Structure formats: C-alpha cells, structure tokens
C-alpha cells in the first residue's frame, strides 16, 4: 500500500509541478536587481521617487536582460488589473499594420482612398488623394486639426475622417492625430476580414501569453486603434521586451526585424527641445525619447519604455497630468543605476524593497 500511495504522491507532485510550469511559462522570468547589475537600494529610491513625485502612480515593472527585477502596484491596483492604455494602444495597432504588410495584404505607400471607395467624398482634394498608409503611421496626414468623431457619435468614422480638410501635403506636417490610427485599424480590417483585436490574437497576444485582451470598437465594429485597449502591466513589459528583442520571442520571429527598426526609428521631426521627450521625433506610432530610448505612451501616464543600450524595458501605469515628470523620474533615478556587471546579493536591501512595495497606495487626487 505504501508503494501505491508513494507512486500516487509522486504522480501528484509531478502533475502539480508541470501545471505550475505551464502557468509560469506565460510570465517573464524573475531575478534580483543585484543579479542584473542594479542595487535594491537604487530600485527603492526609484520607486520612492515615483510615489512622491507622480500623482498618482498605479504600477511599475522593470525588466533587465529579459528578467523582471522590480515590480510594484499601488493598492488597490494588482498584477491582474487590466489597465486602460489610452494612446499606448497605437503602438499595438501599428504592429498589426506591420504584420499585414509582411503578409502582403497592403503596402506602406498604398493610398488611403484605395481601401474606401464607398466612403470617399464625391470630390476628393489633391492632398487627400496623396495621403498614404505611411502618412497615417507617421502622424503626417496633412491635417491641420484632428477629425472630430465625437461630433457624430453614431456616424461613420471613416467617412468623417475622409471628409475632413487636408490643407497640407501629406508627409510634410506633423500633427498628432488619433483618428489616423483608427484608419489604420479600419484598413487592417478591410484587408484581413478581422478586427485588429482578432487579427493580433494568434500573431501577438497568444504567443506573448496575453490573455483575454479587450479593445473597444467604433459604431461600425472596428477596433478603435488609437485607444480602447486594456492590458496588464506585465503585458506591456512583454510587448516592450518583444520590440527590444527585434521581434523575436521564444526563438520565433513574431514581428519582422525590419518593421521593428522602421517603427521605432525617427520617421518624422516633431520639435527641437532637447529637454522634452515629445520633441525627439516620431516613428510608426512609437515616440523617440531622450537617452537613445523609444516608447509607446498614453494619456495620464501609461508608458512602455525601451532602452536598447541598457537592455531594459520599463512599463508604468498611472493617473497623472504630468507625463514628462513621470519620465524624468526614470532618467533621474534609474538610468544611471543600470550597471554593466552583477552586484553582490543584498538580503537587507531586498527586504527593505519588499516592505516599501507592500506599503504603496494610490493617492487621493485633489478636487479640481
């Protein structure tokens, strides 16, 4: 009987271990800060600065050399909380465009009007006729102002976009333009027969272990593209890590390396202020940053920051009106602490960091 029970116990242990591994396989590996060249004290100072200077933080995750070395959630936020990404959704939509191009379903230089013969104005301007997919990606559509979808909540968003005046030659004038991202989503749906959400599920979300993603849609059933995506903090970290790895994930090329290089490079000039992370150039729905970094970002402080030189990804969610201030904490408190060599393990530092993370709470925002 002991032998039988012993075999049952071993089988149960093996089954549970295998189950745990299958669950953990979706998560990024974890490591101590010291093992990846960063001190626990430096991470603690970084998290403290976020807590004190950003009103208000929701979460942060730091990935170094492919391993999570720091993660914190400000209560009541949790690791499983799907967070509204706002315009950080744009970088995911751009990825869908890149994949559709790689599959031969469209081209960067395709005219926008080509995809919407039924929605085009009867008299299209010369500039509208010259607007291309590339211009949508680079925020250089030629618009002076954004098309206003809210003016007709139940209207046809593609028609509203195409009816909007295009006073500038496409490709010559940077104008941040969320409806242009919606048009990317609508084009992907036209050429694939799937919403961007459904198109990305087997190509991006499932391989990264991003479960049950949600993306709000327009009245026409098109994923909004420029916003409306919800994801967890670790999902953002995985997305950034994928781009850091030039599109590779677990030995597979999920995104063409050429697309990663193009999307994150400076495609459009948008300013010259060396102190502003919004003046460093714009790619294909990715922002260039100071310090050789690039990022996806969204309203109220949602960030996926990639630092190729430091082999580091930082994912953050927040509810703040000072997004530059949030980024400044990364540059001032973390960047210089990313060392080249492992450090001696620090039990006391690890304990102090754990206590700090356990004490974090979302601040009450002052009434406006």
List the helices and strands and how they pair.
Blueprint: H1 2-24, H2 40-53, E1 57-64, E2 67-73, E3 83-84, H3 89-102, H4 126-130, H5 133-138, H6 157-163, H7 178-192, H8 196-208, E4 214-215, E5 229-231, H9 233-244, E6 248-249, E7 252-253, H10 257-264, E8 287-288, E9 294-298, E10 302-307, E11 312-318, H11 323-334, H12 347-358
Helix pairs in contact: 2-11, 2-12, 3-7
Summarize the structure.
By secondary structure, the protein is α+β, with helices and mostly antiparallel strands. Helix content is 38%, strand content 12%. It has two domains: 31-80 and 232-258 and 298-368, DD-peptidase/beta-lactamase superfamily (Beta-lactamase); 82-231, DD-peptidase/beta-lactamase superfamily (Beta-lactamase, 3-Layer(aba) Sandwich).
Q: Secondary-structure element sequence?
A: HHEEEHHHHHHEEHEEHEEEEHH
Query: Within the CATH hierarchy, at the fold level, what is the topology of the largest domain?
Result: Beta-lactamase
Unreliable stretches (pLDDT < 50, length at least 5) are 1-23
* CATH-level-4 superfamily name of the largest domain: DD-peptidase/beta-lactamase superfamily
From the 3D coordinates, which CATH architecture of the largest domain would you assign?
3-Layer(aba) Sandwich
């Amino acid at each position: 009987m002991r032998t039988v029970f012993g075999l049952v116990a071993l089988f149960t242990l093996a089954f549970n271990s295998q189950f745990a591994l299958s669950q953990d396989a979706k998560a990024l590996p974890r490591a101590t800060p010291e093992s990846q060249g960063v001190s626990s004290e430096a991470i603690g100072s970084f998290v403290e600065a976020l807590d004190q200077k950003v009103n208000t933080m929701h979460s942060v995750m730091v990935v170094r050399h492919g391993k999570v070395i720091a993660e914190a959630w400000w209560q009541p936020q949790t690791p499983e909380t799907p967070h509204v990404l706002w315009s950080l959704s744009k970088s995911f939509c751009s990825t869908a465009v890149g994949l559709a191009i790689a599959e031969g379903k469209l081209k960067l230089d395709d005219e926008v009007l080509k995809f919407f013969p039924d929605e085009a104005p009867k008299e299209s301007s010369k500039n509208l006729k010259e607007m291309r997919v590339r211009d949508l990606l680079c925020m250089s559509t030629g618009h002076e102002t954004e098309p206003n979808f809210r003016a007709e909540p139940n209207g046809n968003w593609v028609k509203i976009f195409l009816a909007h005046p295009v006073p500038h030659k496409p490709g010559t004038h940077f104008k941040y333009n969320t409806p242009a991202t919606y048009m990317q989503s609508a084009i992907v749906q036209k050429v694939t027969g799937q919403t961007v959400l459904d198109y990305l599920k087997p190509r991006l979300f499932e391989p990264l272990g991003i479960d049950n993603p949600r993306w709000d849609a327009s009245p026409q059933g098109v994923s909004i593209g420029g916003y409306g995506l919800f994801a967890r903090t670790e999902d953002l970290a995985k997305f950034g890590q994928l781009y850091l790895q030039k599109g590779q994930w677990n030995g597979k090329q999920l995104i063409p390396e050429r697309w990663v290089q193009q999307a994150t490079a400076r495609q459009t000039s948008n300013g010259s202020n060396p102190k502003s992370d919004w003046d460093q150039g714009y790619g294909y729905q990715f922002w260039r940053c100071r310090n050789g970094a690039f990022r996806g970002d969204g309203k109220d402080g949602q960030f996926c920051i990639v630092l190729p030189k430091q082999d580091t990804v930082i994912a953050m969610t927040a509810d703040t009106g000072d997004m530059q201030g949030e980024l400044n904490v990364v540059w001032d408190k973390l960047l210089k602490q990313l060392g080249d060599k492992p450090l001696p393990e620090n039990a006391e530092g690890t304990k102090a960091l754990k206590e700090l993370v356990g004490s974090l709470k979302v601040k009450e925002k002052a009434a406006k």
